[in-house]
Amino acid sequence: MAQNDRTTGLVGHTGIKAPARTATTANIVLAGEQTIDGVACVTGDRVLVKDQTSGVDNGIYVVDTGNWSRSKDFNGAYDIVRGTVFLVLDGTVNQGFWQVSTNDPITIGTTSLAFLRSLENNAANIDFLQSGSGMIADDLQNRGRQVLYLTDAMSVAQRAAWAAGAEVDITAQLQSAIDSLGDSSPTGRAGVDILISGPGILSGTITSRRRGIRLVGNGWGYRRDTGARRSYLRWNGIAGIPMLKFIDCYIGPAGVSRLKLMGNTAAKPSSAIEFNEDTANIPNQNIHLEDVYLGGFSGETDVGAQFTRGIEWTGDPENNSEHLFENVYVTGCSGAGIYQSAVQNVNLRLDHVVLYYNGVGLNICGAVQGSNVVFLGNTIDILQPFQDDSASPTNAHIEINGYYSELAGRMADLAGVGRLSLTGQFQISSSLNADGKIVKQDGISIAYSLRLQDFRFTQGTAPAGSPHIAMRCSAGGSTQRSIILDNVSGWALLTGGTNGLDVAPRLPLDRTYVYFRENQQSASPVPALVAENFLQGNQFGQVLATFDAHRRESRNDTSLRLMDDFLGDVLADQWNGQVGSDPQCIAPTVLLAGAAADKFGGVVRLTTGDDAGATMALNGSQLDSGLNWGSWFAGLCCEFRIRLSAITNVAVFIGFTDQVAALEMPFTLAAGNALTSDAANATGVLFDTAADTDEWCLVGVAANVDATKQFSGSAPVAATYENWRIEFSATGSTNASAYFYRNGVLVGTVMANAIVGNTDLTPVVAAFSRGAASRNIDVDYVFVQCNRF
Predict the structure, then answer these.
(1) Residue 620 has what DSSP assignment?
(2) Among 252, 273, 298, 640, which residue has the least CB neighbours within 10 Å?
(3) What are the beta bridge partners of residue 767?
(4) What does the alpha-carbon distance between residue 481 and residue 14 come to, in Å, rounded to a whole number?
(5) Closest CA to 725 of 744, 709, 707
């Protein structure tokens, strides 16, 4: 019984009507049994009549052998309103949901009635959902992500096949549905989900361009007893092209969810999913893969190498925005499970990802952050979970918390500017490579770092003397290296015969930093590691080692350091202060008075004179130490944190110089950016407002021969601290090269012949005023370090 609304007189079935058997496609005679839209209508069938010459005659009628009559639920004063919905069950053209589109009030027999599709969203009518004015369309358009049902674009026979669990080729229907959305998602919308609720076949690539389209299944569960499964896409096309291709999808998120993609061992797609950018400055952005399975289950008919690659990026370098892969399983790739080409620099987040029996697990050129990542198997090729084989160095950065690898030949193989950090991992190696290296760096251009924490290795089998971890650099390789092992157990850690750091040929390890803490190592087949092994066969090296072999801790500090935060009330004995002749000059002094922010944490202030003569001899103030540092020392570096009270009419130098006997400004600049070096040997950074270019300038002089100066592109900011670090590449008695870092960022290029390789040096801060106003130079700390040996 219908529920009455006593206020309006509406009844409970006003919103939704009983289904109609079919609907008209043109004006008809409202009498007799007849065929409408391919359906043979017989007495008692309900028919939606919507195309009469007079719209007053439209409505839902009951078929009779004589004259038809209006349906009793479509004949009263309160039976229908704008938005009343009903289902048309059958018909070649009109099957689906319809709704009344005539504005209220409606009087049957008087008001001209009109109807439009409501929830139907097949390929021919998707535009209604995007721009239609009906109640349901309006609701869908303003709700956020829209949902389109692929079944609405399929024929009755196809839907019946899906209902029976049979495969259906949906290539044309799926591509048509995507194309009907236009060149982008609706303005202001969050995108569209296309629901694929059965087993589909793809005979060609499905392409989505510049759309926030997500293909959504209803899960990819598999019953081994019957072979039944819920939703998947299986490839039945030619080899060498992708199954799914997202192009320039900057409106998002686009992607795939709750769906399985299966390739074909006889005609492998180039990839299951390809992200491509073919238009400059329009990258794929915010791609999401969630609950996705690529490949076949064991026991299925077509199992093995089904894809060349699982997921890959192609196209222009801008293809680099954030992507998220969550609960993703990739198997059956003859190449990489996840692959980026050399030009790509993709930022990728992995969460609960399994890469199983692929040629390479992960080939990355960009940044990867993840948790709970598993690599299994090497039956197709040696599994290299982390590999960067780009033609030119890129910033490969991999950081994963929760890592497991089994039956892997080589855990990692990085090139370029690589950083690998793994925390909370378990690594099993059944057979190592011939060179025995689990982690190696080869042909590296600038820098790399390795960090393993809470990591366990098992022995497996390997050539005698092979290490579990070894870092290798070929000729022309890295100049900066950092290795941290924290709570790592295994055998032959960081050994390669006699050398912990296997360098071929013997390159100086002048900026290699190694730290060990609470690590365990067996005594066989390689003797327990000792810190000296890292330097054996190499003249230079920097090792900061704390290693626990069998939980017996030994320490070996091989570095010399000077670190002064200038705490206390006077300068320590190792510092000297010199000033010019102007009475306003003040020797370097620890700040005790003034604002707390100025003196907090220890600060030394140099105060220049204010004589208009504007020379170092008149207005200079200088802080230096003893000549305790040799330019030939490996690992030599210095670091200063300073601020200038003003950046006008001033000259400031920080770095190393070769004398402490007299007040001296090692370098100055003049009009035309002309450089004058007063020191015989010095290297550092100079700011001099007498130059045409008011920027920090990188300078050096070796035996009175100036190195090529470089302007940094940045100037100091008044009353603002900044950090400068200078590192030297020592090569014995020959001239050393210098690297400059401002606030931790490398500035300029390596400076060749920055300083003579056999010179005694001191750290120095020197400044003078170039006008009739005094200047303050505050030094927060000075740090100097080199190798002891």
Answers:
(1) -
(2) 298
(3) 621, 652
(4) 75
(5) 744
The tokens for 405 are: 């690898």
Q: Is 129 helix (H, G, I), strand (E, B) or coil?
A: helix
β-strands 46-49, 59-62 pairing: antiparallel
The whole model's pTM is what? 0.51
Which neighbouring-strand residues pair with 195? 149, 216
First to last CA, the chain: 97
The rounded distance, in Å, linking the Cα atoms of 446 and 417 is: 6
Q: What is the pLDDT of residue 267?
A: 93
- Reported for 103-108, long-range contacts at CB under 8 A and 24+ positions apart, including other chains, are 106/80, 106/81, 106/82, 107/77, 108/59, 108/70, 108/74, 108/75, 108/76, 108/77, 108/79, 108/80
Please, what is the average pLDDT of the chain?
Answer: 75
DSSP SS3 for 15:
coil
Sheet architecture: strand order including 69-70? 22-23, 46-49, 59-62, 69-70
For the record, the structure tokens of 203 come out as 């005979």
Low-confidence winner among 337-341, 550-554, 583-587, 729-733 (lowest mean pLDDT): 550-554
Angle at 27 between CA 24 and CA 28, to 5 degrees: 80
| Cβ-based neighbours of 328, under 8 Å, separated by 6 or more | 289, 290, 291, 292, 293, 294, 350, 352, 353, 354
- 450 pLDDT above the threshold of 60: yes
**What token pair was written down for 395?**
């910033």
Is residue 357 packed enough to be buried (19+ CB in 10 Å), middle (13-18) or exposed (0-12)?
buried
Structure tokens that stand for 477 in this block: 């390789």
For 534-561, the DSSP string reads GTTT-S-B--EEEEEETTEEEEEE-EEE
Between CA 772 and CA 128 the distance in angstroms is 77
Of 287, 286, 285, 242, nearest to 263 by C-alpha is 242
CA atoms within 13 A on the CB side of 441: 30
